[in-house]
Amino acid sequence: MSCIIEVKNVSKIYRMGDEKISALSNINLSMEKGKFYCLLGTSGSGKSTLLHLLAGLEKPSKGEIRIKNAMIHKLKENQLAKFRQMNIGFVFQSYNLLPMLTAMENVSIPLTFKGVNRKLRDKKAASLLRAVGLGDRLKHKPSQMSGGQQQRVSIARAFIGNPEIIFADEPTGNLDTKTSQEVMELITSMAKENNQTLVIVTHDVEISKYADRVIYIRDGSIEKIVDNLEKEGALS
């Protein structure tokens, strides 16, 4: 398997007045193409900070982050935006759907930025919404859908550009247990079918059981990494 994400000696320090707060300390990590990784930790552990660094939403205080041979911490903002547009899809806990747009319009947003024409955008968005079980919700706006349905729209939006990497920050955080299971099965099956690398942040051990590799984050450091063959014993 080829390495698609590599993190070397990464630390993140936030300044609050004269005080320095260490959010991450000397993180070293590599991720292979087509695998599912879970960043597991409690609130304040640093797991979401690490995801933000991987996505280029924040820059590390020190260290290197390489994605597909691009040193993303060195890219300018316009370069980063284009890199994310071409290579990364996002799924958020709060869905982040535009309330005035329909499900189909929300899903097609990434293709709009890529310059895809309206007819093809609509065709792809409708097809993907049917694939996630929302074929009867194409013209519905977020306020007309349940939380689980909104998250399915968010998933379709993340996958529509066929990015090589999907980042998901607590994607089941606002969902009940049954809906969480449905959402996780949907995300994992879609990523596996397209050989995409999936990186999910969660505090929920049940969600981590879907991953190929679980990266335990504690107090800003990697506590341990457990692969799928060992995982059941470690989590029981």
From TrEMBL:
Keyword ATP-binding: yes
This protein's name: ABC transporter ATP-binding protein
Domain of life from the UniProt record: Bacteria
SMART domains: AAA
InterPro entries: AAA+_ATPase, ABC_transporter-like_ATP-bd, ABC_transporter-like_CS, MacB-like_ATP-bd, P-loop_NTPase
Annotated Gene Ontology cellular component terms: membrane protein complex
PROSITE patterns, sorted: ABC_TRANSPORTER_1 (PS00211), ABC_TRANSPORTER_2 (PS50893)
Pfam families cross-referenced by the UniProt entry: ABC_tran
Keyword terms of this UniProt record: ATP-binding, Nucleotide-binding, Transport
Family listed: Belongs to the ABC transporter superfamily.
GO MF, one annotated term: ATP binding
Location of the ABC transporter domain: 5-235
